[in-house]
Amino acid sequence: MLNFSFQNPTKIHFGAGQIKAISKEIPLNARVLLVYGGGSIKSNGVYQQTVDALAKHTWFEFSGIEPNPTYDTLMQAQGVIKAEKIDYLLAVGGGSVVDGAKFIAATALFEGDDPWDILAKNQSFTKALPIGAVLTLPATGSESNGNAVVTREGNKLPFASPLVRPLFAVLDPSVTLSLSDRQIGNGVVDAFVHTIEQYLTYNVNGKVQDRFSEGLLQTLIEEGPKALLPDTKDNVEVRANIMWSATMALNGLIGAGVPQDWTTHMIGHELTGAFGIDHARTLSIVLPAVMKVRREQKREKLLQYASRVWYINEGDDNARIDQAIGLTEAFFKKMQLPTRLSDVDLGINDIELLIARLKQHGMTALGEQSDITIDISHEILTQAL
Amino acid sequence: MLNFSFQNPTKIHFGAGQIKAISKEIPLNARVLLVYGGGSIKSNGVYQQTVDALAKHTWFEFSGIEPNPTYDTLMQAQGVIKAEKIDYLLAVGGGSVVDGAKFIAATALFEGDDPWDILAKNQSFTKALPIGAVLTLPATGSESNGNAVVTREGNKLPFASPLVRPLFAVLDPSVTLSLSDRQIGNGVVDAFVHTIEQYLTYNVNGKVQDRFSEGLLQTLIEEGPKALLPDTKDNVEVRANIMWSATMALNGLIGAGVPQDWTTHMIGHELTGAFGIDHARTLSIVLPAVMKVRREQKREKLLQYASRVWYINEGDDNARIDQAIGLTEAFFKKMQLPTRLSDVDLGINDIELLIARLKQHGMTALGEQSDITIDISHEILTQAL
Fold first, then answer.
1. How far apart are CA A149 and CA A280, in angstroms?
2. Does residue A354 sit in the same domain as residue A248?
3. Is the pLDDT of residue B194 over 90?
4. A323 & A259 share domain
5. How far away is chain A from the Cα of B217, in angstroms, using its nearest Cα?
């Protein structure tokens, strides 16, 4: 196991009816900005529950945060923040809304020249508005971590700071019943790949972390498809297990003390930036190709993954790895996601643009040992055709 | 899954050489009381590393906290706290030292009449001194939770408050190499039983919690015995996996959203209080008996435990449960712990005293459904003979 420091102070309120907990979590003298996306929270009742919980608070609202939230949209929030002296953000939505709130929180108190530098130049900041979150879509884990991704003119860039980690997060699995199959499929696969990217690396004998990751993968494999099947899709217990898995997949715990290989996410971001493909659908296309191209470097963990997650214990090493990769692809298909570039109408002629963008964003030494060169990324994309 | 609220803000610094992190965690203007037990931290170098890390701090010390820390000892710390205006406690030791520091922290700022009421009358308190911890014995999880147990005249009573949860904890597995086999065996079994008591209940379909608990049990089963075997006992990786398992077993995470049955601990406390038996050795005696007496109520989870933790999938239900209980006892024996009252020279004539003490302490409705009556506790103790 590697040395590590770990802290996750986000307070979680989990379960049906927990939205009312926000009334006690946000100080009564706060000036709250309720931040959300499109109108879905108005049709599924979450907006009303939130407004009810804020009955004694002073609050304003800012809506219109899109999937893959954009710099231009998020900067517009600064108007109401200054005009109304906002000092607390309440993000109500999925990972994009929570990510967006994080950038708004950092920008509101930013003392540098240009807030875009937080993303483009990795510029640090020393303060941010406090954030609370009401999660409506289990996927990104953003509700209890300090990470966010923001897009500007097709450039999709991450930043991270403990200052923007939500102070509390409400996870009510019953509100996810109104999600579309596409949102559920995307969310389950996103959480699955978050787990894989902290697990499928060289082996440092982190036995607790490995077992926890395997437990999350198994839970997502068992429960994910149920959320799409007619007989079980309305089962709140299924939704609860998916929701808790997605939070645990990226709250920092399973990645503490082990290497992490975020290659799939980094290549995936270029697919979204260049072609507008849903985040999770870029992951389901890239991950199998990463597994195939990096099978030698990941051999030990791929065999462990085959055995412990998929119960594959027959056949020689290569056959077991092939079978595990095949079952991973089959799981993504069962969640109704693509596994090839051709599934989203991309082909060999599109690879050069993706490679150029990886270079432009400095993504030329990926993987936990920084040994995935741009040539290897090219090989991965070719494998994914 | 049950509704829950969960927060664990303790910052963990894990790995060899991390004791130096305390220099940055404790404010430089703090007046620190270093709290420890006997002299073991002086012979294994932990005391010196701690003193070195506090080179720029103002600090004092209070030693002599015994295993199963006593009220009388802990109250003596109030003298130096008042005389030196102590405002920060640094606990250096195992669970008993950390537990003791928690009671000292609560007592220092207690505004009620009698600090014993915190334990005897479950009296709440509104403030406590901040605590940091350097853990030297992986077992109790006390380094990142708000629980403590204190003994007075043979009465061993628990209290809990988020106010006494350590702000930070240093976990350096290399310092555990100097522990005796008895300390290691006790610690591994303590962590194992903590996990079991949050797992072996009626089933609420908390799939993540179940998988995490099973992962901890498997890790302790795999790594525990290695810490006693000549060829592997000096392996720091083994110690690291045990140490992280013990912390994760009782930091609140695996118990969030699931029922908990602390019967084994509650009966075990009476065995320690009445006869001075090591805490973990009471658990290894009581748990198998609880499994046998409560096999019908715990049937579903016992079968899951048999299959997922011990890979027992052959034979009828009862045979599989018997085998799982047998393997649990064999594991405890491999860790060099007793599994019967007769192993610690107790017999049928001692049961009445234990029953009387359970009654005296109000332990007459144990278990996650409060249905373990005093008669059932009698049956459990008889089963454990």
1. 14
2. yes
3. yes
4. yes
5. 10
In a domain, B205, yes or no: yes
Structure tokens belonging to residue B223: 């790594």
Residue closest to B373 by CA, chosen among B257, B293, B286: B293
Q: How far apart are CA A167 and CA A144, in angstroms?
A: 8
B215–A222 CB contact, under 8 Å = no
Q: Are residues B138 and B232 in the same domain?
A: no
- Closest residue in A to B10 (Cα) is A7
Cα separation, A283 vs A380, whole angstroms: 12
Q: Please, which residues have CB within 8 angstroms of residue A1's CB and are 6 or more apart in sequence?
A: A204, A205, A206, A209, A257, A258, B14, B15, B237, B240, B241, B244
C-alpha B381/C-alpha A373 separation (Å) is: 64
For residue B116, the domain's CATH number is: 3.40.50.1970
Are residues B14 and A5, on separate chains, in Cβ contact within 8 Å? yes
**CA separation (Å) from B185 to A20, A27, B63, B164?**
46, 47, 25, 27
Are B204 and B1 a contacting pair, CB within 8 Å? yes
Chain A, chain B: beta-carbon pairs less than 8 Å apart: 123
Q: What is the nearest CA distance from A218 to chain B, expressed in angstroms?
A: 9
Q: What is the CATH number of the domain that holds A355?
A: 1.20.1090.10
pLDDT digit string (tens) for B9-36? Answer: 999 999 999 999 999 999 999 999 999 9
Q: Is A373's pLDDT higher than 90? A: yes
Chain B partners within 8 Å of A21 (Cβ): 5
Could you tell me the CA-to-CA distances from B14 to A51, A362, B254, B318 in Å, in that order?
42, 31, 20, 42
Return the residue of B nearest to A217 by Cα.
B208
Q: Give which of A207, A221, A235 to mutate to test B binding, by max B Cβ within 10 Å.
A: A207
| CA distances, B243 to each of A207, B147, B175 (Å) | 11, 18, 11
Q: Is the pTM of this model over 0.95?
A: yes
Q: How far apart are CA B127 and CA B106, in angstroms?
A: 7
Residues of A in contact with B206 (CB under 8 A): 241, 244
Over residues A345-351, mean pLDDT: 98
Using a CB-CB cut-off of 8 Å, the residues of chain A touching B17 are 3
From chain B, pick out residues whose CB is under 8 angstroms from the CB of A248: 208
How far, in Å, are A289, B36, B137 from residue B142 at the CA level?
44, 14, 11
Centre a 10 Å sphere on the Cβ of residue B370 and count the other Cβ atoms it contains: 9
| Separation CA B208–CA A334 (nearest Å) | 21
Radius of gyration, alpha carbons of chain B: 20
The answer to whether residue A234 scores a pLDDT higher than 90 is: yes
Does A9 sit within 8 Å of B12, measured CB to CB? no
User: Is residue B26 situated within a structural domain?
Assistant: yes
**Cβ contact (<8 Å) for A5 and B12?**
yes
Three-state DSSP class for residue B183:
helix
Q: Report how many domains make up chain B.
A: 2
Q: What is the residue range of A215's domain?
A: 181-383
Q: What residues of A are in contact with residue B18 (Cβ under 8 Å)? A: 3
Q: How many other C-beta atoms are found inside a 10 Å radius of the C-beta of residue A180?
A: 9
What ipTM was predicted for this assembly?
0.97
Say yes or no: B307 and B229 in one domain: yes
Q: Same domain for A238 and A350?
A: yes
Residue B221 lies in a domain: yes
